[in-house]
Amino acid sequence: MEKTFGKNYIALTTSPIDLGKIARRITPENCGAIVTLDGFVRRFTNGRETLYLVYEAYESMAIKEIERLVRQAHEKFFIEAVSIVHRLGKLEIGETSVVISVAAPHRKAAFEACEWLIKELKRTVPIWKKEVYEDGEVWIEGDRQ
Question: Does residue 112 form part of some domain?
Fold first, then answer.
């Protein structure tokens, strides 16, 4: 599921995410910086060894909420374009789960917007993460991701 609006691009996918392709989707001529966050599956969480993660989403609502966040980011920060792609399904250690790229005329706004977007995405978007360990599993909600 994907959506393009203005210079922005958002998507949910079950396929591996190509970090460079997502970041380079947004390279407006008047921008001097693109800040990209590559969120990926780590081996240890709070001292527990993670075997893999599973992401699920209420997809249509998640796309609407991500679009709302992108529109808010444009109002809050001096940025030109945003690209957000989140992966769903089973992810192994080291695989990318989310990419957020923000293009702006100056890097400070791009950094600030990117940080704000990941915090708000985790807090408000209906995407859920299950961490699977050798001795059990747990669903993680909201900004504890």
Answer: yes
Each residue of 58-87: pLDDT tens digit? Answer: 999 999 999 999 999 999 999 999 999 999
CA distance 55 to 90: 7
Specify whether the CB–CB gap between 11 and 85 falls below 8 A: yes
Domain that holds residue 10: 2-137
For residue 144, being part of any structural domain is answered with no
Q: Please check whether residue 130 lies inside any domain of the structure.
A: yes
Between CA 37 and CA 52 the distance in angstroms is: 20
Q: Is the pLDDT of residue 31 over 90?
A: no
Task: Name the domain count of the chain.
Answer: 1
Stated pTM of the model:
0.91
Domain assignment of residue 143, yes or no: no
Q: What is the mean pLDDT of the chain?
A: 92
> What is the per-residue DSSP string for 67-119?
HHHHHHHHHHS--SEEEEEEE-EEEETT-EEEEEEEEESSHHHHHHHHHHHHH
* Structure-token pair, residue 2: 């994907």
- Averaged pLDDT, 127-137: 92
